[in-house]
């Protein structure tokens, strides 16, 4: 049996009952390196053990997202990402309102009243998000876009390693 990414990183035997194997497959060893660096392997195992089995997938994804965000931005982490998205949303709303005012100058004020009707099928950003595990649209969702580490320090050192692949944790 091929060890999971977590067991590969920790250089230990991966058993059939490995709690981390479903969430950190062999090809995601770098993701576990980030999670291990930020939270610690034992803490991740304890968090997953104390979580309901049907929610473990989402908890592992959230931990991985938070760890990657912390590696990208050591000061703000995922809060910095949220702030950037909120700022972008605020700017886009201002641009939309400005465009509506400009259109109203040329067409008339009735454009502002009817402009919300054609967009009734848009997603309400203020509504609470309900996510279920069996939701077909979210079953293959991956919140982690591909990105290159800012430094070559995050890449594994080149060379032969008798025990397998070596992955360095973020510094």
UniProtKB/TrEMBL annotation:
PANTHER family: LOB DOMAIN-CONTAINING PROTEIN 32-RELATED, LOB DOMAIN-CONTAINING PROTEIN 4-RELATED. Residues 128-171 are annotated as: Disordered. Signal peptide: none annotated. Pfam families: LOB. Residues 2-103 form the LOB domain. The lineage of its organism: Eukaryota, Viridiplantae, Streptophyta, Embryophyta, Tracheophyta. Belongs to the LOB domain-containing protein family. InterPro entries: LOB (IPR004883). Coiled coil: none annotated. This is LOB domain-containing protein.
